[in-house]
Amino acid sequence: MYDVIILGAGPAGLTAAIYTGRAKLSTLVLEAAMVGGNAGIADIIENYPGFPEGISGSELMARFKQQAENCGAEIRYDEALDIYPSSQGIVVETRLEKLTARAVLVATGARRRQLQVPGEEEFLGRGVSYCATCDGAFFRNSPVAVIGGGDSAVKEALYLADIASRVYLVHRREGFRAHKALVERMHNNERIILKLNQVVDEIEGDEYGVKQLLLKEVKSGQAEKLPVEGVFVSIGMVPAIGFLANRLQTDNGYIVVDESLMTSMPGVFAAGDICSKKVRQVATAVGDGALAGAAITEYLKE
Known about the structure:
Layout: E1 2-7, H1 11-22, E2 27-31, H2 37-40, H3 57-70, E3 74-77, E4 80-86, E5 89-94, E6 98-106, E7 110-112, E8 128-129, H4 132-135, E9 143-147, H5 151-161, E10 166-171, H6 180-187, E11 192-196, E12 198-206, E13 209-217, E14 223-227, E15 230-233, E16 237-239, E17 250-251, E18 254-255, E19 268-270, H7 282-301
Parallel strand pairs: 1-2, 1-6, 2-3, 6-19, 8-15, 9-10, 9-15, 10-11
Antiparallel strand pairs: 4-5, 5-6, 7-16, 12-13, 13-14, 17-18
């Protein structure tokens, strides 16, 4: 029996563990893959307060992990397969065992939807990115491409237009799903060049990073080489919700929470990118984790 079981060792989960650990609550953090989540694979993070020179995602998340452990949290590599209430508390079934807690925090995050094309994995962190606000500054005065046609893609293109020498927006359709006001701003920006009705076939480069995109026209199949040094993939997020979709109230796959981050199941909270929210950054995940940790502490006291 634990006071708190946290699913996910990303920024939200580890921050919550720091708070519950300092409150002397027995805390277990379960991580199915890699401590740090999306933040852990970031080449460098420059927009997290306290690190004016920037810090690698792996180092920042290692510090989060160490601090959580220093506060008494236990971190274990295992994957939760189900959670449900019982007379003893909330049961968490994992691949290895069955655990019980007085409260559970879901902080399993979300992952960026990938293009699934050759070169995408190879050049991740060396030209391929899924976050313009995280990595855009590395491409100052360089040509870049944004892939996508929704609000997030257009916003990323507009953001990068103030940094890059030229921004190509590659979209598989003629029209945009993005808000009309955003699309109008994009059309009025001379640095943004549209590549419509085209898809990415391959991302090419060398040992130094990305050098060009291979594009294909959707209808004709005609190929085109597009010289760029950065590729920002913005085709949506996929919440890592799994079995929880049948247990908790969701909105477009993301968990719905109240002001204290409680879900539709009493005693189960959610924090970070798994929640229905507008901004998904390390800083906002940390804020969620702090709120969830404090809310869980208060909930258990009551």
